[in-house]
Amino acid sequence: MRRVSASSQAISTDDTGSTASQLGRRVAAVDHRGSRQLSQILTTRVGLEIPENLPFELWERAGPKLIRIADTSAWCLGDWLVHGQDHYRDRYQHAIETAGLDYQTLRNYAWVARKFHISRRHEELSFQHHADVASLDPEEQGKWLRLAAQEKWSRNELRRRLKGIGGGKRKSSKGALVSRLGVAEEYVRRWREAAERESVPLEDWLISTLNDAAAQALSESGADYPAR
């Protein structure tokens, strides 16, 4: 295994403790010869350092823990951006650029975070479970998330079920927005492709993009822009 920098952290491969406490903990494992060794997966800024002789069982356990870390990051970044949008309209975008974060990805996180108050989020489900039902009415969101949690559906299984009933009752209040704009079909296709890449309904993508553009223009002109 390559030498690991001092900034590396270890991912625990046992089944106890919270996700936060799993970082930085060494776990003793028994190898196939019965001798004891330290087996750990180390995280760095550019990826994982995985021992060549790491047992399969320990490698397998690391997967769900990494997914939980990724989900936590998505929710936290979404909440962070929502707070910026609501409280620092004239400055938050500059803060994102300074931090070097990908705004397109963050906007998707924020869209999902805004759809689900923290009290409505299911800890046992992934961020992507929530993203797949975010465009539904709140009542439908809750119904599908409860079913997914009870039946232990994967994200793909939830998607399959949603497709089976046509995606459920989707919001229709903004359904005619695109047709009312009267723009060329070529532009609509480009917008739709961009929205699909962010897993966001076209109408929500348009509104979010226009709001961001308006905030930027008003900020540059020195005009006041009230928080949403």
Secondary structure layout:
Blueprint: E1 9-11, H1 19-22, E2 27-30, E3 36-39, E4 41-44, E5 47-49, H2 56-87, H3 92-99, H4 103-115, H5 127-133, H6 138-151, H7 155-164, H8 177-181, H9 185-197, H10 202-221
Antiparallel strand pairs: 1-4, 2-3, 4-5
Distance between the termini: 51 Å
Biggest sheet descriptor: 3 strands, antiparallel
Mean pLDDT, rounded to whole units? Answer: 75
Portion in helices? 55-70%
- Share in β-strands: 5-15%
**How many strand segments?**
5
Strand order of the largest sheet: 1-4-5
Order of helices and strands: EHEEEEHHHHHHHHH
- Approximate shape: globular
Low-confidence stretches: 1-6, 15-38, 167-175, 224-228
Radius of gyration equals 22 Å
Distinct helical segment count: 10
Class computed from helices, strands and strand pairing: mainly alpha
Detailed description of the structure:
By secondary structure, the chain is mainly alpha-helical. The protein is 55% helix and 8% strand. The chain has 10 helices and 5 strands. The strands form 2 sheets. A 3-stranded antiparallel sheet has the order 1-4-5. A two-stranded antiparallel sheet has the order 2-3. It is globular.
Descriptive labels:
228 residues; mainly alpha; three-stranded antiparallel sheet; 5 strands; disordered C terminus
Q: Could you give a short description of this structure?
A:
With 228 residues, this protein is mainly α.
